[in-house]
Amino acid sequence: MLSKFLHRAAQQKSASVALLVDPSSQVEEGLSCLAKGVEEGCVDAVFYGGSLRTHSEEEAQWNTLRQKIQAPIFAFPSNALQVHPTADGLLHLSLVSGRNPDYLIGRHVEAAVYLDELGIEVVPTAYLLIDGGKVSTAAYITNTTPIPSDKVDIAYATALASVQLGMKAIYLEAGSGADNAVPVKMVKTLSSKLDVPIIVGGGIRSAEQLRALSDAGADVLVIGNAFEENPFQIMADLRTFKCAVEV
Ligand code: 1GP
Question: Half-sphere exposure (CA, 13 Å, Cβ side) for 45?
Answer without folding.
Answer: 29
